[in-house]
Structure formats: structure tokens, C-alpha cells
Write a structure and sequence with these properties.
mainly beta, two-stranded antiparallel sheet, 16 strands, 13% helix
Amino acid sequence: MKIKFTIFSLFLLIIVLFSNSLQSQNATVSDSSKVKIKLNLGADIMSRYIWRGIDYGSSPSIQSSLSVSGFNVELGCWSSVATNGFYKEIDLYAKYSYKKLSLILTDYYIPSVIGTPASPDTRFFVFSDKKTAHTMEASILYKGDEKFPLWVQAAVFFYGNDKRWGYDATKDLNEKTYYSAYFEAGYTIVIQDNSLDLFLGMTPAEGAFGNKSGLVNMGVTGNKKLKISESFELPVKASLIFNPQISAAYFVFGFTL
């Protein structure tokens, strides 16, 4: 109960900070055009959903997003649904950014994988630590500017369905959290109006991302805008991804609506 209250309090605190910032801005800025609140929504159609070096769904996926942002805060939802019906994910997140640093709290809800229940209870509104299909993650992200477009992220699961991975007999028997962690660094190379993202990710111990410490996600993503007409360009991307720990390779293509 204390854990659930803490998680709820963190989300609530970010929402309150967002609301207070909005009220403060409205009180001090007479020109409403200067109030920068953005509503963002979109969808990616991808040939595969590969996340941190792992294939989720083994089929093309539809990935939709909705968020509102402003005053250094972003609240949003992201989802991926496999076209074969064997995988569904809904993520809620809150992000606070200051200059080049961002603090992110994410709730991953994954009820099933390849048609198999991912937790003892897959209902959305069940948050009991040892039963829930939700996994909570805290992460910190550094993202550089155009002059030095480096990003570095550190993330760790701290509550929920980060259990029963089969790598630690004591943790598995007592259904203890593995505290699965992931670290990633990347760099963007701009080529005319296009870009290449180089990335390298690793996990420090066995858990959700691998059976031991090591590289689990490395590769390159190309981003380009295809000109469809004089007034419309379609963003497309392709990724070549390797997971050295399981000797896997993926090539993924998709576009954004």
C-alpha cells in the first residue's frame, strides 16, 4: 500500500507542478500566444517492435502516442499493439526536463506476451506488487544540443512485474524484484536534411534485458522525410539492430503519421 501511494504521489506531484506553472504563467503573461502548451498525438507503423534489443510481438505493430507538454513537464501515453494480436503494451509517463536533463517516471502495462499472461493478474487496475502486469521505471536522460547531439540514459525497474525471470533462484522463489537496469548512449549525425542515430545499450546484471551483464542493444537508425507532395512530407525510418547477448539481428522499417 505504501509503494502504491508513493507512485501515485509522484505522478500527482508532477501534475500539480505542471498546473502551478500554467497558473503562474497565465498570471504573468498577458499575451496568450506566449503560453506554450502543446498537444501532441501521432502513430508509427512499424515492421517490428524492437525495444532495448528484444523483439516484442514478432509481427508488424501499430504504435500510437498522446501527450501534453509545457513548462518543462510532459505527461503522456504510448502504446504498441502487434498486428497478430499476441502483444499489447500501454505506457503512461511523466517527464520533467531542466535544460539538458530529464527525469522520467514510466508505468509499463504489458498484460501478455505471445498470447501468454505476463503476470498472475493481467487486469489494468490491479497494482499489487507480486500480481500486477504493471512495471514501474525511473530513469534520467541527458540530451545534448545540435552542436553536440549526444544522449545518455540510465533506467531501472523498481516496482511491479520485474520478477520471475528464472536467473536467481532466491528471487524467483520469493517473487522479489530484480531491479532490472538499462544504460544507453547514442549520438546523432546530421546528413543534409536527414539524420543517423548511433546507439549502444547494455544491462549490468541478469533481469528483464538479458541473462547476464553485457551489451544487449546496438545499431543505427536512419531518419528521412519523403516528399509526397508540395505540402506533405512523410517521415520514415529504418533501423539495423543487434543484440550481442542473444546473437540476434533485426532490420526494422516504419513511418510516422
